[in-house]
Amino acid sequence: MAALLGPNGAGKTTILRALAGLVPLAEGRVVLDGRVLEDPARRLRVPPERRPVGMVFQDYLLFPHLSALENVAFGLRARGVGRAPARRAAAEWLARLGLGTQAEVRPARLSGGQQQRVALARALAIDPRLLLLDEPLSALDVSIRAEVRRDLRRRLRDFTGVSLLVTHDPLEAIALADRLVVIEGGRVVQAGTPAEVTRHPRSPYVADLVGVNLLRGRMHENVIEVEGGGRLQVARAGDGEVLAVVPPSSVSLWRSRPFGSPRNVWSGHVSGLDWLGDRARVRVSGRPSLVAEVTPAAVAELGLVEGMEVWVSVKATEVRVYPA
Amino acid sequence: MVRPPTQPFSPVLLVLAGLGALFFVLPLAGLAVQMPWRSTLQILADPGVRTALELSLVASLASTALACLLGVPLAWVLARLRFPGRELLRGVAILPMVLPPVVGGVALLLAFGRRGLVGGPVATATGFGLPFTTPGVIVAETFVAMPFLVITVEAGLRSMDVRFEEAARTLGASRWTVLRRVTLPLIRPSLVAGAVLAWSRALGEFGATITFAGNFPGTTQTVPLAIYIDLDSGRLPVAVVLSLLMIVVSLAVMVALRGRYLGDG
User: Fold this and answer.
1) CB B232: neighbour CB atoms within 10 A?
2) pLDDT at B257
3) Whether A65 and B163 lie within 8 Å, measured CB to CB
4) Would you identify the CATH topology of the domain A213-323?
5) Domain A2-209 bears CATH identifier 3.40.50.300
6) Is residue B151 part of a domain?
7) What's the pLDDT score for residue B237?
């Protein structure tokens, strides 16, 4: 699962629409499973209805005049499946997504989360090789977003095709995708795993975008075993797979081991220094690796240079944790 | 509860408004008063009247059907496609709405009449002519009624979210399937409203009909024409009955379309 991340207007949705065949390419190619779907140079263009592509739109676009079941069955019937088998398959999909009882309900009477699941079922029912998701969580109430995100991650794990997600929310991207592609002004600015992108921003936008330290790990009671090494003590107890956010501004740097209230203290090496306006971002590699934000004056005073050993401290109360 | 503030008004305003209301109410009242209530059923049973009624019904329904057949595709083209001259085409399609109907009739004669642009060659080849025939009535009524359908359906198509059609295509629907299973169902209210408006207009058409199709009882004398002739030849009771019938039909149409086009629903 790849995520296209970028600010609004960067062109992310356009890319999705082009892949779906709704917008023609001026140049370039679309190749899926080794099959060329579009190649303007060779005047080749497979229309959207013949591409093995399923799309979940930002506001779902569930047909208002059809029930949930009919919506999910629509793609199958459009592709020639008979009425009864299509309805049966649709019913199965709805049951699989926990919507068995809502089959005859019209979309207008479903909650946001339910609509999203129907839209997902509708796209998956046609057995696509490429699944496109346009800001799947943005239409949802903030309060249920985390839960739906977890739900989505679980469901997409079973999907055998390629899935591509578009979002402007870095949290969404990092939580759902294995690979991040950052798009700015219609160009790919950076691509890689979430960890790579987070660790080495290549433009102020990306740096700002992933301006938080986001760590993944497994939690037991008050301690998180961070993926890739290190432990973090946090204020509130919890359990299971978690995401932890440490704002760079909460990371303090010391020349020697500090003894004080911060529960998390470890040593590392300065692996990079970035100047962003009136702040300095210091990348510290260690277990775990973090980015600290300090004043230029502090950098000068500490004599921070690349390669230097530093001690890092993070207060347990400054770590924000939530289920992954 | 807060009472709405009362507007200051001048008595002159009230008087003028009252006169305006009377302007509409008096003619209707006049009709109601003159209505020959006791002989109504007898009049309606008269064969001449029955013929006019049947003809009006058949012709208006046929022209509505023709308007739909030709008007919906036209509306689709105007709403969805972009091409040079589109505005001109829309203007031409709407023209019959603002044209004096009798002028429409003359134009139809010049196009489809026995010496017309299209009618001429057809008449020479087949001996068939549209003027003064029942099909001619249908053509005249379609001419004046179709713009209503086109305008309504076009508006419906424009206000519809096109992305539903895109969603359908990504699901595998061909353009035809999209039209049939997504577009038309979604604009059904506009389609119905447009058809009802067109039918109502066709039913009431006079000027173009009498000019193009003439006033022959049985073949081209629709109810509006019958009313005119009856009035002209002094058969007032018949004219009144038919007129009130038309009013009842118009009221029914208004009720059916309330909220869509006529303000408070």
Assistant:
1) 9
2) 78
3) no
4) OB fold (Dihydrolipoamide Acetyltransferase, E2P) (2.40.50)
5) yes
6) yes
7) 83
Residues A290, A271: Cα–Cα separation, whole Å = 10
Choose the mutation target among B159, B165, B170 for the interface with A, i.e. most A CBs under 10 Å. B170
Query: A21: phi > 0 → left, psi -120 to 50 → alpha, else beta; which?
Result: left
Average pLDDT, chain A: 88
Among the partner residues A55, A64, A65, nearest to B170 by beta-carbon distance: A55
Residue B228 lies in a domain: no
Q: What percent of chain B has pLDDT over 90?
A: 38
**What pLDDT is recorded for position B263?**
47
Q: What is the ipTM of this complex?
A: 0.72
Q: Which of residues 49-88 of A touch B (CB under 8 A)?
A: 49-51, 53-55, 57, 61, 63-65, 74-75, 78-79
Percent of chain A with pLDDT over 70: 96
Split into its structural domains, chain B has a count of 1
Rounded to a whole number, what is the distance in Å from the CA of B165 to chain A's nearest CA? Answer: 9
Minimal CA–CA distance to B165: which of B176, B151, B154? B176
Q: Is the pLDDT of residue B262 over 70?
A: no
Among the listed residues A316, A315, A312, the one whose alpha carbon sits nearest the alpha carbon of residue A256: A312
* Distance from the A177 Cα atom to the nearest Cα atom in chain B, whole angstroms: 23
Q: What residue of A is the nearest CA neighbor of B175?
A: A49
Task: Tell me, yes or no, if the pTM score tops 0.80.
Answer: no
Q: How far apart are CA A72 and CA A95, in angstroms?
A: 12
